[in-house]
Design brief:
alpha/beta; Aminopeptidase i, Domain 2; 2 domains; six-stranded antiparallel sheet; globular
Length: 470
Amino acid sequence: MNKKQIEDFKKRTVRKPKLVWDVLTNKENIQVDQLADDYKFYLDQAKTEREAVAVTTKKAEASGFENIEDSGNSSGKYYRVFRNKCIALAVVGKNPLSAGARIIAAHIDSPRLDLKQNPLYQEVDLAFFKTHYYGGIRKYQWMATPLALHGKIIKADGSSMDFVIGEDETDPVFTVSDLLPHLAAKVQSEKKLSEAFEGEKLNVLIGSHPLGGEEVEDRFKLSVLQFFYEKYGLVEEDFTCAEIEVVPAAKARDIGLDRSMIGAYGQDDRICAFSALHAILGIDKPESWAMAFFFDKEEIGSDGNTGAKSHFVENFVSDLLAKTGEDDTDRNLRRALLNSMAISADVNGALDPDYQEVHEKRNAARLGYGVCITKFSGSGGKYGSSDAGAEYLGTIRKIFNDNHIVWQTGELGKVDEGGGGTIAKFLAVYGMEIVDCGPALLSMHSPFEISSKADLFMVCKAYRAFFSTE
């Protein structure tokens, strides 16, 4: 071969990842910014799984989706909220549901701090809340940073109330104090990172003004109780029947002088949840049924009645079969799930320029290079992974290529270096085809994760193509 022939051969046979910014049109660049603004607003409104469900429900209803429980519903677009912590949406397809659906499943919970059931105490004339961290956090990242409280409380009379403190500019914020470096040598600096910061010491500082004089016992604790009683009518026992989440108080922001990135809490996995919602809201009468599931509890193993291990999928699909006049027997339900194709919509860890040694660069996802197809997750020899088959990867590849989707492949770190799990394995038990597919993030699982606006645009486009293409 001569030089030109070699170059032509190379162009035809060698795969070179594409930077999304290099292929966007002027019109698409405008759409990128508009989509990013919508996404940032969504992030600020949906910092907890309950809030994400509420936002999703509102958007779904505005787009013509109706509650599956409503009698006489014939819109062809259905949703179901379960326990106020997970939600599913479905659009009726031209093909029967028993022939299979196109499913995208994301999770709407994120790592955080949860208040314990008896959280309030005082120590050295300061008032605190005790917490138990939720999901995989690096404890030191949650110290010396502004925090907000998002709560659901059931009162003694059975009534419920929600509250948010720390998100409005006029609100106070809260924090977990850290030790000054002058005194940290023995208790922190000389220890391993996993031992230096104790989960039991992630106590949220909430007050220092006493109620009454020195003769009053627990007057700093009482001052906090006075606030909650006067503002919300709460007493201390109400905290035992509550879910109060401690999350970063910062709002989603553009990152970089070029505003090409987004920094925010909870992008794992709300960037996928937002993209899946955006995709299904734009679908009307697809060939195959389109479904989007938004689960809770992924960050702690998908257990519980609102996680992907629950029977939420079967219950919803079974009721859809009945609603649309199909046989809703167990056999037909199993056939519908078996014939489905799914995407486990979850993020991957982007190649970090300062820590490249923990990645295998040839198989690491990169920020700005589009939606990442993650064939397998798991750890220690792919343990805990569903590991997608070659045939299904070929199907996804064709959908993406035919629809001009910029995509890449990736794995979460070097072999035996890390790894992680997703909800894919819990849907795979139905026999459906499934693969992990979502954008890559920097600073993943931190209180301020980083995504690319270009990747967000391409993920939304990819999910729409998955729903629409036969």
